[in-house]
């Protein structure tokens, strides 16, 4: 009688420790996939908004793959992982000093800018394991003593960047690793890849959780624009992914990266990103104004005003109180934030409060108005 274990082996499914299953064929229809299901976790306007990630990467990793060979281009740490915003024609500059345990000749710094616009990606294509995808607009990489820029040419709108979910215990992962390294070593494309070893690095594990990772290995090109699950597809398949991503319409950024060796494992990382492309900018919506429509001369009355900006920009308000006084521009306030203002009319009469909003680029809304009366004291005889 054939045991359950041998039966599973005969059809290409292997029982491994900790309930990890390597299947030569799975529901996705391709080979060399390793299930991670049971793996334990260790504003647009004219202002560009994105997320900058700077990866400290060992060229030949201290960690070995399941086959005993070392990883190449495995991430050790994030030197920077935060949102950025850059107004049109402005430049974002930063210098980051990173201290760690690396050798000068065995480290490279990779950086990528992910657009804030949200898309839906799938970690289990075509429609399984959805995640929030933010596509890459620019990328660069440099070793100590080098300066690098995002590549733009007739074939590529930007340097393509690939993050690979992998683990040192994964028997299927070395195949994809060798394919990606072969493509990179050819040097035919503006392309970098980084191995995120989830069982060795908590930052890598957290990043892959953002991708809703299901299988190992999985390659996420340009923030999830293209997703490749499993090794064994061949280098030409990955080359096609790189070329497809490289044709995308991206936001125009002048992106430069330089790295200095500061000694004793320390790196000086210099980033410069210029926003070269204006974005469509819509004015705020017509404000609302609520409050009392009747009062007495000398009485202070409060009013609430609010608007939203379609681009998510901050807003300013200008108030004409109808008695030859104005507030000038007040703000900034968050889009959708209720703002309370007050005013006192000195004389009896009827007044029209008018309010309008503008964004930081000076785009103004239409006027909104509210009629207020300070009743006359009528002398009535009878």
Q: How would you summarize the topology of this molecule?
A:
Blueprint: H1 4-10, E1 13-15, E2 21-23, E3 33-35, E4 47-64, E5 70-87, E6 91-99, E7 107-115, E8 119-124, E9 128-133, E10 136-142, E11 147-149, E12 160-166, H2 173-186, E13 191-197, H3 202-210, E14 215-216, E15 218-221, E16 226-229, H4 235-246, E17 253-263, E18 266-275, E19 288-290, E20 300-306, E21 315-320, E22 326-333, E23 339-344, E24 349-358, E25 368-374
Parallel strand pairs: 12-13
Antiparallel strand pairs: 1-2, 2-3, 3-14, 4-5, 4-7, 6-18, 7-10, 8-9, 11-17, 12-15, 15-16, 17-18, 19-20, 20-23, 21-22, 21-24, 24-25
Low-confidence stretches: 1-32, 34-44, 378-382
CATH topology of the largest domain: Glutaredoxin
- What is the arithmetic mean of pLDDT? 88
Sheet with the most strands: spatial strand order: 1-2-3-14
Form type: elongated
Q: Major sheet, described briefly?
A: 4 strands, antiparallel
Which structural class is indicated by helix and strand composition?
mainly beta
From N to C, what is the helix and strand string? HEEEEEEEEEEEEHEHEEEHEEEEEEEEE
CATH C-level name of the largest domain = Alpha Beta
Strand composition percent: over 45%
Q: Output the radius of gyration.
A: 29 Å
Counted up, domains total 2
Annotation, overall tally of beta strands:
25
**How many DSSP H or I helices?**
4
Fraction in helix: 10-25%
CATH architecture of the largest domain: 3-Layer(aba) Sandwich
- Give the CA-CA distance, first to last residue: 117 Å
């Amino acid at each position: 009688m054939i045991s359950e274990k041998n039966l599973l082996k005969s059809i290409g499914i292997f029982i491994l420790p900790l309930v990890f299953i390597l299947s030569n064929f799975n529901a996705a229809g391709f080979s060399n996939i390793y299930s991670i299901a049971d793996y334990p976790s260790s504003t647009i306007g004219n202002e560009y908004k994105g997320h900058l990630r700077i990866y400290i990467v060992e060229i030949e990793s201290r960690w070995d793959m399941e086959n005993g060979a070392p990883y190449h281009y495995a991430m050790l740490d994030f030197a920077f992982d935060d949102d950025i915003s850059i107004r049109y024609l402005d430049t974002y500059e930063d210098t980051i000093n990173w201290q760690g345990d690396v050798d000068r000749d065995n480290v490279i710094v990779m950086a990528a800018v992910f657009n804030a616009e949200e898309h839906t990606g799938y970690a289990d294509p075509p429609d399984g394991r959805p995640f929030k995808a933010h596509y890459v607009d620019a990328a660069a990489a440099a070793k100590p003593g080098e300066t690098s820029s995002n590549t733009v040419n007739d074939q590529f709108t930007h340097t393509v960047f690939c993050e690979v979910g992998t683990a040192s215990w994964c028997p299927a992962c070395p195949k994809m690793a060798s394919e990606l390294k072969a493509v990179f070593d050819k040097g035919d494309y503006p392309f970098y890849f980084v191995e995120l070893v989830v069982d060795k690095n908590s930052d890598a594990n957290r990043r892959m959780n953002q991708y809703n990772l299901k299988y190992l290995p999985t390659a996420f090109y340009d923030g999830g624009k293209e997703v490749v699950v499993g090794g064994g597809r061949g280098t030409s398949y990955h080359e096609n992914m790189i070329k497809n991503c490289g044709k995308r319409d991206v936001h125009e950024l002048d992106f430069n990266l330089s790295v200095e060796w500061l000694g004793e494992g320390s790196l000086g990382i210099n980033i410069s990103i210029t926003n070269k492309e204006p974005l469509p900018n819509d004015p705020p919506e017509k404000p609302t104004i609520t409050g009392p429509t009747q009062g007495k001369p000398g009485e202070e009355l409060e009013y609430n005003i609010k608007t939203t900006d379609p681009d998510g920009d901050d807003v300013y308000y200008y108030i004409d109180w109808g008695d030859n006084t104005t507030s000038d521009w007040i703000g900034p306030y968050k889009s959708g934030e209720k703002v309370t203002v007050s005013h006192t009319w000195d004389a009896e009469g009827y007044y029209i409060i008018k309010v309008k909003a503008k964004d930081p680029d000076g785009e103004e809304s239409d006027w909104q108005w509210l009629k207020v009366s300070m009743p006359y004291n009528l002398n009535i005889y009878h």
